[in-house]
Structures
1.
Amino acid sequence: MKKPIYIGRQPIIDNDKNIFGYEMLFRSSNENFANIVDNLSATAGVLENIYDMGFTTLMSDKIAFINVVPHILNQEIMDLLPKERIVFEILETSKIDETAVSIIKDFKNRGFSFALDDFVYGKEWEPIIRLSDYVKIDVKQYSKSEIKEILLSLKNYYKIKFLAEKVELDEDFKFYKSLGFDLYQGYFFQKPSVLSSVSLDPSYAILINIFNAFQANTDIKQIETLFKMSPELIFRLLRLINSVAYDFAMKISSLNQAIVLLGYDNVSRWILTMIFASNKSNKGNLGSDPILESAIVKSRTMEAICNNFISKNLADKAFLAGMLSFVNVVLGISFEDLFKKINVDFMISNALIGHKGKLGELVEFMEAFYDSDYFSANNILKKINPFATINDILKIDSDALMYLEAVKKSGYGFSNLI
């Protein structure tokens, strides 16, 4: 199911007014504000949308500041992030105790950086200050003389960078620069903006089943079987691989390759991020989107045709081509634009765009077959394999449809999918 995605972004600049990084902000619409009820869901939502939109699109080569409270870091959803480009902002409302200090120490040792958001000094914050790389001071909370005093006292004890937040005038920027601030954020440079894109929303039930399968160390073939019931999830997995965090040079030719390339742990954490970010509104079955139902049937049919009449070595690529042949329709974009978003094997993209190669012949056949143009379909089929008949394909397609219906009735129970 197609869904709009949003994320807020505000630049952070240095003393020369060059962009140093961006604070990434939770947004649930194109309105430039957020009503945050649950910190974990908000942080997971920011991460989910960063993975979907891509690091390069959102940040270019800059640093991302992401709001968190310490206990969220323990939810195993952060390890997908490129640590050299991430600063975790510890919210001023965070509970600071020995557990929080221990969590932050652990992530510092992994190579992540930390900032203190809207900092107000308190004795309980001292261990955290020593672990921090940045301190953000809301200049609206204090007089200029108080800010000068705070900055001088902290600079005497801590080797960290100081960021002036909510700077609204250029003359204020010059003043805070003269005090010794290193970074700045505020309306004088740019208000937060809301960026939007379109993604696909997988079934909540499928997310839960896949995550549980990972936790049970299930065989990858069975994991694949679960993924194959969600065109949305396959598309988003390919988008994740195409993001800056996973800038692989190789082209993806199969679902198995995509999962192995990212690794069990990373895919599991990515699934968990989507679970935490979900509002659980999409718990329903596949019947809610007939286009994506068709993608499942078509991809299984193409896979089976390869296994029976072309080459088993082509089956994985055929399955992926079948899935992707509907994704561009759901997103409302061309194949050319789709393949700018995901990094798939040229054999797949060439087959879908120009019907090239053996896989292209199969794509062309499927188009004629589903248009009920059996005369043209039969001519193409004879080129693919002279011994295959339209009746053979009707049987394969019927089996794929029956499989889908059986799974829908089962409610996506894992044992029923394998």
2.
Amino acid sequence: MAVRIDNHGAERFFQGVADQLPLSQLSHLFLLHWPQHLPTPLTLMNNGAGESGFRGFGVAGRVSLARVMAKELQSTASLEVVCAGTPDSRDGHRILLHDHPTAHQPATRILAELPQGREAQDRLIHNALTALSHSGEEGAELLLFGTKDGGIVSAAKRWKPSNTRLSRGHLRLLAIPANATVIARKPRKTRPHAPVTQEQDGFFHYGYRDLSIATLPGVFSWRSIDPASHLLLETLEGNSALDTGTLLDWGCGAGVIGATLARRHPALQVTLSDDLFSAVCCARRTLESNGLVPSDAASRCTVIAEDGLGPLFSGQRFDTIVTNPPFHRGTRSDYETARRFLSHSRDYLSLHGHLHLVGNRFLDYGPLMRAAGLARVKSLAENERYAVWTGKRHR
């Protein structure tokens, strides 16, 4: 089980980081899975005093974190969503939404949160070191932080030269210079080869039925469709209620559920949404790869970067909502995101609209759906691990 970071431990660690590298010397701070119940390092490194001294860029891999960082910086600039290219530092935007640790900017000193999974970790480190090398500054380095059970120890063994700069409680700080390289690793004998191929578009791709799913390390179930989503799609096959109307795929990941339903039902208007920036990029590329977003006409499929059912959904109603709701944030379990979503889901359904949800059987979402005001809540299908629940807005 992953270690839960408490406020005291995080504060003690990041004050130690600030002693070695003040906020004023950071060019970029990158956060990806930072716990929502804690202040971010922007506050912790400054003893709770806010933005004092920090003149760099905050880069967030999630919409939810980007909004928290903007609030802590008391930023009046609108959130800049960067999908490609280099943002202009003169435009006043201090918080960038991106999965690259510097949003492709040159950098001198980066403080970055370690992602989950070896492939995602190596991708982030490689991107950060490339950005550092482009700065041309002597002494440019990446400072990587994470929990000892989250991969920071093995990252130190893979990337050389590197050294542990700080270790307090469950957290560790790893310093990696711009000239570091990754040591070739032996393949894991117990791990099957990933059924994914990297294409020229920069994404990995795997096949699901007649679709090509674009994916990246760090996105949920990035090597192949997960069995829960497969069960949901099997259960909804032949559902004539999806032939027309509007559908939201909430927490879409790489877009396999939304893209499959869009392909099955050519008149269905599909919106895909995720908090994770890399998932949004993958979902967009999945739609493009399968001809579901024609460039010469208004698309019936759209992808939104949004935290939960946030401001971008204001006033919208959907005839159907489908979801395989997340219950992990990095290595930590996070059930609150799904609970918040379910508590408000009725408000985003049209009259007589349906919510279809798949999850682990032990989570038992039925009572939460009933508490949210949904009617006719029942299990449509289940196997030894997963269950598909459905509910309806009746008034």
3.
Amino acid sequence: MKRIKRWIAVSIVFSFLLGMIGIFGTQEIVSAATLARPTIKVTTSSGNPKITIGKVAGATGYRIYRKTATDQKWVKVVTTKKTAYVDKKWKAAMGSKVRYTVKAYYKDASGKITWSKTAAVKNWTVPTKMTKVKVAIPNTARFELTCWKKMIDPLKAEGIDLEIVEVDWERGVLEEITTNNEIDLCPYGAMEFLRADAELYGKYGSKVTPVGYETSLADRIFSPKYESLKEIPDGTVVTVQYYAAKRALKTLEAAGLLKLKKELPVAQGAFGDDFQGYLDSCIDQYLKDIKIEGCYTVDAGAAADQYDVFVTDMSYSVTEKGRTLHELFTEPRTDEGYMTTILARTEDTKDPAKLDLFEKVVEAYQSEETAAFYETVQNEKPAGWDIDVISRYR
């Protein structure tokens, strides 16, 4: 009788195991011994290493590792279910070797992971051929010139020869990039400022487009005479720059000095004799008795002598001509229209190889070193770096 009961018990267990195999499928029974060691090959794709993995039967996915001459240990690159991956995060000197290896893994229903043996290491040699990228920058933009010059050496390690071409003024940048095919990129002010100038936008607006951002422009209200908005007396003249009139009016509204109409016209023709008409079409009500006047540019030194209150996107926290410029109000902008841009020709964004180049240049600009430079010199953190503009063109 005991033998019969033992036989029945064994039969039940065996039937249960067969049922489990039927439910989950035979791929559940995988061990390290059955996961084959993967094979890999490394080729070049648009200047980056492309790792291709030989498919391993029963594998859930793969983990790719990288090691350069400066790495002390293997660095995990990515865990993926795909058998091909282009590594765009590598950093190594021209002509040096970057090593890659891969492990296959299997993940069962309980979450347990089984790894294969590591693939044989394959080397990828960093290209020694340099790709020229020319950037046009206004010669008056000293801060930008310094930022871009700091990128020259890091980009050389990625096979990019960055050349900076200094031009006379900001409009010259747009002329350079749209008429000189040797120019690839140019930093420029906010796109809203370009749209505000009907003539300029009509000439260049469709020919250029952002591929990245440098920072967000914060509008500020300054005064060498008053230390707070409450101190501003009735009848005070507030000076704004013509090209940034629309934005300045929004800043004055945020500061509680006026109320704007719901629908604002584009700031076209907001220059010279047309300026008062433009103000009338924008302002619904003055909440404080002020008068708004326009000017073409606000220079910190001149502002200390000429203006009682002025609005600008420049950061002045210094004493000019013995007079302290008091910051009365700050209105940071987070929308893309008011971010300083890195522009490319619109037609170039249709070229995948050029997009890869632009992406590397933008990443080089948006570095920890640049961010530290912003905080030290401009006393502000850059913005817009979390926006992946280039992906919109792919």
